[in-house]
Write a structure and sequence with these properties.
The chain is built from 1 helix and 9 strands; from the N terminus they run H-E-E-E-E-E-E-E-E-E. It is of the alpha+beta class. The protein has a single domain (25-112), classed as SH3 Domains (SH3 type barrels, Roll). It has a 5-stranded antiparallel beta sheet with strand order 6-5-4-1-7, with no helix packed on it. Keywords: Signal. Pfam families: SH3_3.
Length: 113
């Protein structure tokens, strides 16, 4: 009987993992206005790059009102007010499409669908 419970648990874990991986669609946003990109999610962090109005960026992580973005050159963090999550050519983060949030080494990271 305990072997069947282990098998059932393994199948359930595989289903959860497959569902989680398939729902981790990339999240993107447009840059609303020119801004500095910082090394960390703090106004005191060193500036490592910049973005310009209209740039299309991939969201890598989220911490409070900061977003880590993937851009040409060094990736980094910008405040949420820099980004425009309006509908466009890709899935965008927002309260209506958050699938799950996890606490990790960078704080809360939300998975959007």
């Amino acid at each position: 009987m305990s072997l069947s419970l282990v098998k059932t648990g393994a199948v359930a874990a595989a289903i959860v993992l497959a569902t989680t991986v398939s729902s981790m669609a990339a999240t993107y946003a447009y840059v609303d206005h020119d801004a500095w990109v910082r090394a960390n999610h703090s106004n005191l962090a060193p500036i490592v790059n910049s973005v310009e109005e209209g740039d299309y960026v991939k969201i890598l992580a989220h911490w409070g009102n900061w977003y880590k973005i993937k851009i040409p050159g060094q990736d980094g963090w910008v405040k949420s007010g820099v980004l425009d999550f309006a509908p466009g050519p890709g899935p965008f983060p927002g309260p209506g499409n958050v699938q799950a949030c996890f606490w990790g080494p960078l704080g809360y990271v939300c998975v959007n669908g």
